[in-house]
Amino acid sequence: MKTTFRFLALATVLAAAASAQPTTQNPKPETSAKIAPKATRAKIAGLDVIAYPTGVKEVVTIKASLPAGDAFAGDGNVAIPTLTGMLLDQGTTKQDKFAIAEKLESVGATLDFSVGTQMVEISAKCLKKDVALVIGLIAEQLRTPLLSAEELDKAKQQFIGGLKRSLEDPNSRANDAFTRAIYPIGHPNRNPSPEEFIAAAESAKLADIVAFHKKHYGPAHCTFVVVGDLDIPQIQAELGKAFAGWTGGVALTHPAKATMTDAAKDQTVFMPEKTSITVIMGQTSGLRYSDPDYQALRVATAILGSGFTGRLMANVRDKEGLTYGISSSLSHDTFSDGDWKIQATFAPALLEKGIASTKRQLSSWSETGVTPDEVERRKSNLIGSFKVGLATTDGLAGAMLNAVHRGYDLNWLDEYPAKVNALTTDQVNGAIKKYLKPENFFLIKAGTVPGGGK
Questions:
Q1: Torsion of CA 143, 117, 8, 128, to 10 degrees
Q2: What is the pLDDT of residue 3?
Q3: pLDDT at 74
Q4: In the chain, where does the domain assigned CATH 3.30.830.10 lie?
Q5: What pLDDT is attached to residue 194?
Q6: Domain 3-243: assigned CATH number
Q7: How far apart are CA 273 and CA 271, in angstroms?
Q8: Which segments in the chain show pLDDT lower than 70?
Q9: Mind spelling out the 3-state secondary structure of the chain?
Q10: Superfamily of domain 266-447 in the CATH hierarchy
Q11: pTM recorded for the entire structure
Q12: What does the pLDDT read at residue 13?
């Protein structure tokens, strides 16, 4: 589960447009050159700092993270990590949230915090001249948040309100149930139920928030990626000054692979008066993103169900007209083994036909495999999408941070296209056979399922 919080600051036209423009103004795209040699990586005040200058003028993008996500609740209150993250932008011991918002607003900067399964992530954008201000505010909010009882009560209401709204969304309910079907208790990818989360949020105490912040927030395993129009010595100096003397933090968790659960293979989450039913079928993949077979299975999965060119959309939707949308994907595999699933939406009257059609495509794909032509086209698509993603400051900074999260050095960004291009049809088909067992898939249905309310 990932929750994002945005400061009350509006970007200027220049800052807002920066994420959409190429990172270089030259005709030759940034992605044609090697990335790793241009990056500067250093340890600054205990932080892992990566700086990458681009051709974009006057704009700086910052992506950062530290291990303090929901997985670190351990055996304690599961809502504490998210509530702690929600309080980061609600004022500090030095100034209230309105003063901080006004400072950001006055220079057209943006600053966001989000809490995921493993990481708290920070995203900021500003003009070059305002880098010192923004870095200072990030440090102040991470190091000395106010953590007041009044703001905690507001955060609880906001969090609980979001959870209650999710109870009315078939997509949320299906995905939530899917994690509890495939992942055992204790695995970080297993979601507590919304009801558990609500009860945990209601019972959360300020003392627990303060203790969690003290233990988990620090420079250990905290990474900053800074991309754009950079004065690198200035960036390093500002980070060194803002974070000097900060201590603490915890290491990432890499849990053991998920074991089989004894959950029912076919589950219905009945929700009255819904116009569509979300269906998920799948299993744990047993793979992390950095595992050797991952890219082969990723190519295979994209052939089955990525976009309108995937087999699922071409047949279940376009040919048979049975679904609003359908796709297959790998997910939740950055820090631990993840999952593989097909997700679709069907009208209640078309549910059984839709599931049967989906299973026919799944069976053909898993038993017969994919063709060399499909593999070549999909490899080209994946490489092209990867390069396009690197052509913005946001995309490039995010790709660098993701590489670090996945345990790679920055050379991986330069090597990725060749690694994908080298995959063979035999490797792709072999990955399907090795990792996926459709006969053991879990099937989750959420919505107004015919007969499901009995």
A1: 70
A2: 59
A3: 87
A4: 3-243, 266-447
A5: 87
A6: 3.30.830.10
A7: 7
A8: 1-32, 454
A9: CCEEEECCCCCCHHHHHHCCCECCCCCCCHHHCCCHHHCEEEEECCEEEEEEECCCCCEEEEEEEEECCHHHHCCCCCCHHHHHHHCCCCCECCCCHHHHHHHHHHHCCEEEEEECCCEEEEEEEEEHHHHHHHHHHHHHHHHCECCCHHHHHHHHHHHHHHHHHHCCCHHHHHHHHHHHHHCCCCCCCCCCCHHHHHHHHHHCCHHHHHHHHHHHCCCCCCEEEEEECCCHHHHHHHHHHHHCCCCCCCCCCCCCCCCCCCCCCEEEEECCCCCCEEEEEEEECCCCCCCCCHHHHHHHHHHHHCHHHCHHHHHHHHHCCCCCEEEEEEECCCCCCCEEEEEEEECHHHHHHHHHHHHHHHHHHHHHCCCHHHHHHHHHHHHHHHHHHCCEHHHHHHHHHHHHHCCCCCHHHHHHHHHHHCCCHHHHHHHHHHHCCHHHCEEEEEECCCCCCC
A10: Metalloenzyme, LuxS/M16 peptidase-like (3.30.830.10)
A11: 0.90
A12: 29
- Which of 322, 340, 398 shows the shortest CA–CA distance to 50? 398
Phi and psi at residue 438, to the nearest 5°: -55, -30
Q: What are the beta bridge partners of residue 64?
A: 122, 224
